[in-house]
Amino acid sequence: MADTLAALGNRFRFNTTFLRGLTKGFEPEQWGRTLSDAGGNSAHWILGHIASSRRLAVRLLGGDAAIAPWEAHFARGEEPGDAHDYPEPDVLARDFQTVGKQLVSILKEMGPEKQGQPWEGEPFPDGSDTLGGAAHFFHFHESYHLGQFGVLRRAFGLERVI
């Protein structure tokens, strides 16, 4: 399973590169737009959410990622708020990249014993109940939100990435 988590680390690394392509060309006003009058996630909120999710993953897997003051704005279940309270998108993207390196390193070093340790927090939607399973869920979650950037790109008239 160690090889599996090393491969998962490579997929997180790909997501870092993919994010750069997905957000290339966004204009400042597009960061705050949603696609529906009923609400939904703006690109700015999505970026903050996946950056804070990476920080949470690092902490849960035993790494050191201090809680940033802005994380509360992007927590699960939080409605997108006033973007003036958010760090700039480039700050969030750099954090996503920096914390991603730490996450990849943790996954590469995670031995079978630690991977099999029970996850004692709130159950993950996919039923994952070990630290290794949690790592896989975090990747799924991040990739889901990266897909939202693809939809936003097309709605904004930007070219597709893949």
Tell me what the structure shows.
Helix 1 packs parallel to helix 5 (131-155) and helix 2 (43-60) packs parallel to helix 3 (89-109). The two termini are 30 Å apart. The protein is an all-alpha fold. The chain has helices at 2-23, 43-60, 89-109, 112-115, 131-155. The chain has one domain (2-155): Four Helix Bundle (Hemerythrin (Met), subunit A). The chain is globular, with a radius of gyration of 16 Å. The model has no long low-confidence stretch (mean pLDDT 91).
Question: Topology of this protein?
Answer:
Layout: H1 2-23, H2 43-60, H3 89-109, H4 112-115, H5 131-155
Helix pairs in contact: 1-3, 1-5, 2-3, 2-5
> How many H/I helices?
5
CATH topology: Four Helix Bundle (Hemerythrin (Met), subunit A)
Total E-strand runs = 0
- What is the overall silhouette? globular
| SSE succession | HHHHH
Radius of gyration: 16 Å
Task: Measure the end-to-end span.
Answer: 30 Å
Instruction: Please bin the fraction of helical residues.
Output: 55-70%
**Overall tally of structural domains:** 1
CATH class: Mainly Alpha
Assign the structural class, choosing from mainly alpha, mainly beta, alpha/beta, alpha+beta, or little secondary structure: mainly alpha
Query: Proportion of β residues?
Result: under 5%
The unreliable regions are none
Biggest sheet character:
none
- The CATH architecture assignment turns out to be Up-down Bundle
Q: Would you identify the CATH H-level superfamily?
A: dinb family like domain
- Output mean pLDDT: 91
